[in-house]
Design goal:
metalloendopeptidase activity, Cell_wall_metabolism_enzyme, M23ase_b-sheet_dom, Peptidase M23, Dup_hybrid_motif, binds zinc ion, alpha+beta
Length: 354
C-alpha cells in the first residue's frame, strides 16, 4: 500500500472512531447509531493515535492495516460486526490480506474482485476502502446473511471456484477483528467494537470476572474461559438457538469409571465437563456451558431464546470450585478443533465477558 493510501486510510479510520466515540458517548451503553458518517469529532483523541499498525500473530503490519481498513469501512456503513469477520475471512482467503495488484484472470486487490465483472476499475479496487465497501454492498443484499455459515455468505458475495475455502479462516478472522477493534486495544480502531455489536442478539451467560482464559500458555488445552460466578448463579443462553446436547460428563481418572454429576468433581481426580449443555446457533456457532450444579433446565431439541435460564453454576466434572466454563465453536463443529476465543467472540457480538 502506498504512503498516500495509508494516510488516507488512517484519516478515514480516525474519522470513524471519532464519530463512533462521539455517538457512543451520547447513548448509554453505546450503539451502532453513533457509528455512521456525519457525527462530531471528539477532540480528546490525539492524532498521535494514528501511528502505524503492529503485527498481530502471523499477520504483519500491512495485513493488520488492511484488516483494520475492512473493519473500519464496515463500522462506517453500519454493518454488524459479523459482517466485518466475514469480510476479513474472505480477504484472508482471497489475498492473505494483501492488496494484490493482480491475480487469477483480471482479479485485483484484497478481495480479488474483477473489473470485468462490474466490481469497479482496477484503480478503485486497489483502494481498500472502495474494495471493502463493494464487498459490504453486495453482502447486505443477501437475505439472511447474518444467520448463514460464514463460508456460505462469503461465497454468495464472491462466487468463488473454491466455496469451502473461507470456513477455515473464521477463527483467525474472529480473533483478528476482535483484537483490532476491542476496547483492550490501544490501536486507532480500538473502540470500533462498540459500533458493530449491541444488536441485542447476544448476551453474557453470567456476569462474572474472567478467571482462566482461552488456551493460555499455562493451559494450552483450555478450550474456553472460566467465569468465576458463585454456586447457584443462573446461567443464561448466550443467544437464541436449539439445545443440541445435555449431558453429564465426569470421569474418575483413577479407573475410567463414571464419577457422576451428583457431587462436585475434583481438579485432579475428575475429568470432563460435568453437567453441561451445548446450544446450536445461527451461522454454525455452538456455545457450551460446563460444570453445572444440577441437571440442566433444558432438554435436547428445546429452542431457547437469548438470556433464557438453562441451568445454574456448580463444580461438577473437572473443576476446582464453582464457575462457568464457557466455550464457543465455529463451523457447526463441537470438537476442540473448532473452539474459538469466547472473550474476543463476545466482544465482537457486543456482549463482552467479564
Ligand atoms: Zn475451564
Amino acid at each position: 500500500m502506498s504512503r498516500r493510501t495509508l494516510a488516507t486510510l488512517l484519516a478515514a479510520v480516525v474519522t470513524v472512531v471519532f464519530v463512533c466515540l462521539a455517538g457512543a458517548g451520547l447513548l448509554v451503553g453505546g450503539s451502532a447509531a453513533g457509528c455512521g458518517p456525519g457525527g462530531t469529532a471528539d477532540p480528546s483523541l490525539a492524532p498521535a493515535q494514528t501511528r502505524g499498525w503492529p503485527a498481530v500473530g502471523r499477520w504483519d503490519r500491512n495485513q493488520v492495516a488492511n484488516a483494520a481498513a475492512i473493519a473500519t469501512v464496515g463500522a462506517s456503513k453500519g454493518v454488524p460486526t459479523r459482517g466485518w469477520v466475514i469480510a476479513v475471512a474472505t480477504a484472508m482467503q482471497e489475498s492473505t490480506l494483501r492488496n494484490l495488484s493482480g491475480g487469477d484472470r483480471d482479479s485485483v486487490g484484497l478481495f480479488q474482485q474483477r473489473p470485468s465483472q462490474g466490481w469497479g476499475t482496477v484503480a478503485q479496487l486497489l483502494d481498500p476502502t472502495y474494495a471493502a465497501g463493494r464487498f459490504y454492498a453486495k453482502l447486505l443484499t443477501i437475505p439472511g446473511w447474518q444467520s448463514m455459515p460464514l463460508t456460505e455468505a462469503a461465497q454468495r458475495v464472491q462466487v468463488s471456484a473454491y466455496p469451502d475455502a473461507y470456513a477455515k479462516w473464521e477463527p483467525q478472522a474472529t480473533q483478528l477483528v476482535g483484537m483490532i477493534t476491542s476496547g483492550e486495544s490501544s490501536l486507532p480502531t480500538g473502540r470500533l467494537a462498540s459500533c458493530g455489536g449491541a444488536s441485542g442478539s447476544w448476551t453474557q451467560p453470567v456476569l462474572a470476572p474472567v478467571g482462566s482464559g482461552f488456551r493460555t500458555a499455562g493451559r494450552p488445552g483450555h478450550d474456553g474461559v472460566d467465569l468465576s460466578a458463585p454456586r447457584g448463579t443462573v446461567i443464561r443462553a448466550a443467544s437464541t438457538g436449539i439445545v443440541s446436547r445435555v449431558r453429564c460428563n465426569a470421569i474418575d481418572n483413577r479407573d475410567g469409571s463414571n464419577w457422576g454429576c451428583d457431587r462436585d468433581g475434583d481438579p485432579k481426580l475428575t475429568s470432563g465437563c460435568g453437567w453441561y449443555v451445548d446450544i446450536d446457533h445461527d451461522g454454525g456457532i455452538i456455545t457450551r456451558y460446563c460444570h453445572m450444579d444440577e441437571p440442566p433446565r433444558v432438554e435436547v431439541g428445546d429452542r431457547v431464546v437469548v438470556g433464557e435460564p438453562i441451568g445454574v453454576v456448580g463444580s461438577t466434572g473437572h473443576s476446582s470450585g464453582p464457575h462457568l466454563h464457557f466455550e464457543v465453536h465455529a463451523n457447526g463443529d463441537a470438537s476442540a478443533e473448532a473452539a474459538i476465543d469466547p472473550v474476543l467472540f463476545m466482544i465482537n457480538l457486543g456482549a463482552p465477558l467479564g
